[in-house]
Amino acid sequence: MKKWILLFIMISMLGCSKKNEEKTNIQSGKELYGAYCASCHRDRGTGNFLFGIPRIKDTELTMSEIDQLIRYGHKDDKKMPMFSRLTSPQAYSIASYIKKHLRYQ
User: Fold this and answer.
1) Does position 3 have pLDDT exceeding 70, yes or no?
2) Long-range residue pairs from 30-36, CB within 8 A, at least 24 positions apart, any chain
3) From CA 65, how far away is CA 83, in angstroms rounded?
4) When comparing pLDDT for 6 and 85, which is higher?
5) Of 27, 39, 77, 90, which residue is most buried, by most CB within 10 angstroms?
6) How many CB atoms lie within 10 A of CB 96?
């Protein structure tokens, strides 16, 4: 009986790997990007030069800088809205999606 319980616990834990967590973060980052960023920066992060919306897919900003920009806006650019209702983990999910996935599209 104890062997079955131990086996069940081990099998259950296999689904809790970092890889599964990373997929969830990527998915939520993509969804959050789509909800908050894509309308201006476009689905692929190419922006719109004619309207002064920067290309972000190859940004040199750090994850922390992107987090701050998303949640608090840009002090010199009032066109960039601030999304203060997003949590830091949500903003980091967006930043991760931008840095790790849009760059290669």
Assistant:
1) no
2) 30/97, 30/101, 32/86, 32/90, 32/93, 32/94, 32/97, 33/94, 33/97, 33/98, 33/102, 36/70, 36/83, 36/86, 36/94
3) 14
4) 85
5) 90
6) 19
